[in-house]
Specification:
It contains 14 helices and 11 strands. It is an alpha/beta fold. The strands form 2 sheets. The protein has a 9-stranded mixed sheet with strand order 1-2-6-5-4-3-7-8-9, sandwiched between helices. A two-stranded antiparallel sheet has the order 10-11.
Length: about 400
């Protein structure tokens, strides 16, 4: 029975998750077997317990020390996360996503910012959790994506989200951002971004607006405390959550040594199917995806390929870069953002231009241009050509 000075499981897990000096693997092992150390350890048993957790004695002592300040750490973190409009879920609570329990090292704490459907109890089969919720597809790939890769990622995500599928990705620049933007371009499209840092960070720089849009129709998810800074080691760790939350993982572009291949390997270990978009054999960003195909991954040449793997049929008719404007657009454009206006001005009604050409003409980054062109396409102001690129709509 819990005494007045004994910290709750929630407090212990949140304090453990924020403990300096502990590696992520140690935190996850200790969090998964809280009952073995929460009330202390006899001095003679410490070495055996550290060996059981595959951690050092110093790490065990750090974990034992967090008990004293656990309540204060929980109060601090709850106040910080409340200011962000987010919520904390621990692995001991009913709302913790069941899919993550399949991981060898499930995160003891998740911090989730987003719509109520993501993170609450799934009595109606909603949100991040379980096989009764909506199907989910992870779309991942290179940060240094080609314009072709960005366009394909956005197209796949938009079509899948239009079929009610949740698009999961890692909120990084490149393919991840294009996947999130594509999902948001679909009517009522939902997407989940898994972060490699705490929720309070504007990282990557320039993604704050995208993050706010994701929160409105999906969720941002982090296993790190809200003030935890980004670091290179965080991103391979977060990839296991992307793999676990998805029914299928699609790799769009990946170099030979890419974090996306880590996500693919983790997905296979969890029994998820991995698909890959074929690329040119001379393209460095296609080396990893082509290796996946050589090793047995199924190719993706259309969103219908993914729908079929999910057992959802083929959805919309199979079209290559379908010209999706339905009917003629109005005579003059409605109010456009600055980026959309610059892109619209650069579009030629008589010929299609590549995305990178339009981005340069509009003085925009390629990822920003992809998002803007998707919005223009949905409004009928841009038409995607069968061979790639865009021309002005209504001509």
């Amino acid at each position: 029975m819990q005494g007045p000075d004994r910290p709750s499981d929630r407090a212990l897990l949140v304090a453990l998750n924020a403990a300096p000096g502990l590696g992520r693997a140690a935190i996850c092992r200790l969090g998964a077997d809280l009952d073995r150390w929460r009330d202390g350890v006899a001095p003679g048993d410490e070495r055996d317990l550290a060996a059981r957790f595959s951690i050092s004695l110093d790490s065990l002592h750090i974990a034992l020390a967090v008990r004293a300040g656990a309540k204060a750490v929980l109060a601090y973190e709850e106040q910080a996360i409340e200011r962000l409009g987010a919520q904390i879920f621990t692995c001991r609570e009913a709302d913790y996503p069941a899919r993550l329990a399949e991981l060898a090292l499930p995160p003891p704490v998740l911090e989730i910012a987003g719509s109520p459907a993501f993170g609450r109890r799934k009595s109606a089969g909603e949100g991040l959790d379980g096989p009764t919720g909506p199907a989910s597809v992870a779309i991942v790939g290179s940060r240094k994506a080609t314009p072709y890769g960005l366009e394909i990622a956005a197209w796949l995500a938009r079509e899948l989200a239009g079929e009610g599928i949740v698009v999961v990705s890692g909120f990084a620049k490149g393919i991840d951002a294009a996947a999130h933007q594509g999902a948001l371009a679909a009517e009522n499209g939902q997407t989940v971004g898994v972060l490699g840092c705490g929720l309070s960070f504007d990282y990557p720089k320039g993604h704050r607006e995208l993050g706010l849009r994701i929160r409105q129709r999906g969720a941002l998810v982090s296993e790190f405390p809200c003030a935890w800074p980004p670091s290179a080691g965080n991103f391979p760790v977060r990839n296991r959550i992307i793999a676990a939350l998805a029914d299928v993982v699609v790799v769009v572009e990946a170099a030979a040594r890419s974090g996306s291949l880590i996500t693919a390997r983790l997905a296979l270990e969890l029994g998820r199917e991995v698909l890959a978009v074929p690329g040119r054999i001379t393209d460095e960003q296609a080396l990893g995806t082509n290796d996946l195909l050589r090793d047995g991954a199924a190719p993706v040449t259309h969103p219908a390929d993914i729908l079929e793997r999910l057992g959802l049929g083929v959805g919309a008719p199979r079209r290559a870069y379908a010209e999706s404007a339905s009917g003629a657009p109005p005579a003059t454009p409605p109010e456009l953002s600055a980026a959309q206006g610059a892109l619209f001005a650069a579009l030629d009604p008589a010929r299609a231009q590549a995305v990178d050409t339009l981005a340069a003409a509009a003085d925009l980054g390629v990822d920003v241009a992809v998002a803007g062109l998707l919005e223009l396409e949905l409004g009928g102001w841009a038409v995607r050509a069968a061979g790639g690129g865009y021309r002005r709509g209504g001509s």
